[in-house]
Amino acid sequence: MEKTGISGVYIEKNQLYTINIEKHSQKKLVNERIVKRDNREYRSWNPYTSKLAAAILNGLEINLEEDFDVLYLGAATGTTVSHISDICKKGMVYAVEFSPFSMKKLVELSEHRDNIIPILADASHPKTYSNIVPKVDLVYQDISQRNQARIFISNVLNYLKKNGFGLLMVKARSIDVSLKPDKIYENVCSILEENKLNVVDVINLDPYEKDHAVIITKHHYK
Question: Between residues 17 and 25, which one has the greater pLDDT?
């Protein structure tokens, strides 16, 4: 196993892994492979089912500390959430999901991981979970809605710490099928900058996810 540019993420033969914080757990996610090395369990991380894994393989390098608190919007059933849980093992992952079906799976996952807090809520109304979520080090969003940029901005302004950063997974076809994806990414960056969110980089997720990109933002406001 070799370290990547992100602390807590490893690579071997172009396959990403995180160290499993579920000690000797028999519960695996779909298509997950467990590799044991030096008394550690490494969980395989599939870039075709996790946009964050795709972004890392395409060059994403961010500072993710083990004690970071994360607000995850659009948690679904928790595949990517579980790997962030491995990486930020001393922090908390506040996982917001709107679908009751997905929430059931997310709750089951949280029963095996003490640092995941599942929240059944609509991310477009961030103040509805203000009694649960504190200021966080990272806001991560993966939501298929036309107004996904506005949802991201609203949550960042409510919950992100000074000097925190954001990862916005942009799904171009959910915004406008008539425009080329690159133009959509450009438009989203403009909206973010207009709202004083500093765009650091844009990384295309091809070939793992078609017409998707991650926009990395850094924030220095008070």
Answer: 17
